[in-house]
């Protein structure tokens, strides 16, 4: 992944002052979450650029080697936490690719401190992987229906600049893909390492619900524009 990932971009207002890089789940693409932007109700705030990258195409073990968009390979044991590590090389390659998108935002005038790394499922795993190791302070990290990959290496690799980065973490209590226990174990690991995790549970499966979108909107307001977080 030496080239910049292809992306879909949506700006909530001209001359954006913040960015959200939002990673899709396994087998989807950047179009998956683009329709959510209007539903977040972020009008009245300074502009935010939402960036939805397309993951590269690769064979995925859990889907019988079928080639699809994925941030890393997945085996059945990964989702239940039976494997010691995820596809480390794939995870780190995607981490590097997201790092390049952050650097491009810097070149376009958006400081790292004004960038949120977000993701759903596999994309949420990469958001955690990238955000907690990124060497410049970010605005926040958002992990939806996800788990913490390469957890064993995080204590040694964690960036001091993001030791207190705000983390929005949400999961469905009926998730059949990534069991709730897998997510709560990841949450507990993060809390034990001192990260400020804002945890949300919803009575849903492997998806996103309206109540969750409301919570995401409030968190983005507070995280990206704290002085205007109380604005209607």
Description:
By secondary structure, the chain is of the alpha/beta class. It has one domain (7-228): Alpha/Beta hydrolase fold, catalytic domain (Rossmann fold), CATH 3.40.50.1820. Helices cover 31% and strands 21% of the residues. It is built from seven helices and nine strands, in the order E-E-H-E-E-E-H-H-E-H-E-H-E-H-E-H. The protein has helices at 36-39, 76-80, 88-107, 122-133, 154-157, 180-192, 210-224; strands at residues 7-11, 18-23, 48-53, 57-60, 66-69, 115-120, 140-144, 167-172, 197-202. Strands 1-3-2-6-7-8-9 form a seven-stranded mixed sheet, with helices on both faces. Strand 4 and strand 5 form a beta hairpin. Helix 3 (88-107) packs across helix 4 (122-133). The longest helix is centred in the middle third of the chain and has 20 residues, at 88-107.
Order of the strands making up the biggest sheet: 1-3-2-6-7-8-9
Radius of gyration over C-alpha positions, nearest whole angstrom: 16 Å
- Counting DSSP E segments of at least 2 residues, the number of strands comes to 9
Q: Largest beta sheet, briefly?
A: 7 strands, mixed
Strand percentage, roughly? 15-25%
The end-to-end distance, rounded to whole angstroms, is 41 Å
Approximate helicity band = 25-40%
Reading the helices and strands in chain order gives EEHEEEHHEHEHEHEH
Query: How large is the count of helical segments?
Result: 7
Keywords:
single chain, 232 residues, alpha/beta, Rossmann fold, seven-stranded mixed β-sheet, two-stranded antiparallel ribbon, 7 helices, 9 strands, 31% helix, globular, disordered C terminus
